Amino acid sequence: MMNNLIQRVQWVMVATLVCGASVLNSCKEAKTEEPESAAKVVSTELIRTSQSWDGVELPDYFQGRPELVAVKYVFPAGQKLGWHHHVAMNYGVLVQGELTIIGLDGKTKVVHEGEAVVEMVGTIHHGENRGTKDCILYMFYLSQKDLPLAVQHPEITK
User: Fold this and answer.
1) Residue 136: inside a domain, yes or no?
2) Model confidence over 84-135: pLDDT tens digits?
3) Is residue 16 a part of any domain in this protein?
4) pTM of the predicted model as reported, rounded to 2 decimal places
5) Which domain holds residue 117?
């Protein structure tokens, strides 16, 4: 009777080990399998330049501590900014719509949705939305404390 009990216990132990190993193996396989369509991070450089959109070389960096500023601009359809110039370098990405930038000298740049643009520094210009939907533009300024992002020129009425 004791032999019979030992045989049953041994059989249960073997069955448990076999089933356990089978479950562990299938769990291991489930963990290591990756779907073939797993999305990967994609990096796309939008712009790399040392010139503003009008071909003018950008100035050297300021001396001293930088102040980085990010601004979201929303241009309703048909609206424009006043004439202005920038003291600090800045660049951005148009995420919606189409924006037309016009220099006081008449040079024009149309920025399309998804494009990056490097603004003019020290040159008077303005931007306008000539389209039928809002433009959304994210701009990044490499400035310093207490410097204006733009100097307005209300005296210009072109």
Assistant:
1) yes
2) 999 999 999 999 999 999 999 999 999 999 999 999 999 999 999 999 999 9
3) no
4) 0.73
5) 67-152
